[in-house]
């Protein structure tokens, strides 16, 4: 059986699959050529991350597909229910990248409160001639400790983010209509574990109470944060989105950054991926990364291994003929 890992897969995942007798193809196939490649090469399993889309047209054109795998959490690039209706198994790795995404959230938070995104642009240009001026410009940093972090969405990544926030001495609040309460267990290096009991609250109260806000929601039909929501927030709030593009109204965000309502934003995802708006890319108050939340060596290793185990398990249980 042949597997096309069109957006790549870790070496550990390849080794596990090859050991089980699969042929793993890592050739990057252009989106418009995926269906043809799958049929021509008798591909039974296609593995993707966020780049490749497996929509109804590919599903209809590829009757030999037995499994579609998503390396990561969200599956908005796959027509999941339609694939299932055709008897195709859908797998993903919801737990593998949680820590990596949460760490990126804090990379953006630390960057924002200490102006690292802007100083890293200006120091190479002016550090040798305007050192004292830059020192003054970036002198009003803010500590995260003691501040309130509002988490929108308390899934696995939201929980990982909450653990890190508590470890930093932050107060954590969250809003999630599907998870009314959550006990956050925080393990330490010496084997000790502490448990923090959290309860969901309304989005409106979260907006009003939070010093910093981070989003951990699936793809949305409407904005979670728009002009009205921004007005509810504290002056000088920091906002991070490492979840999905389209969760924040970027036009309203830029306006709020320009008028000082929002101190900074950290964005890993964008409304118009892979072509973010120039007003976002050039704004000096936005810390920018190119959708790399799960892009750590450790996370990709876990993702590849977990996908391999799920595929092997499906076959061992004779769920795929």
From TrEMBL:
A Pfam family matched in the record: 2-Hacid_dh
Keywords assigned: NAD, Oxidoreductase
Statement: the UniProt record of this protein carries the keyword Oxidoreductase: yes
Top-level taxon in the UniProt lineage: Bacteria
Keyword Ribonucleoprotein recorded: no
Record family assignment: Belongs to the D-isomer specific 2-hydroxyacid dehydrogenase family.
Protein name: D-2-hydroxyacid dehydrogenase
Lineage: Bacteria, Pseudomonadati, Bacteroidota, Flavobacteriia, Flavobacteriales
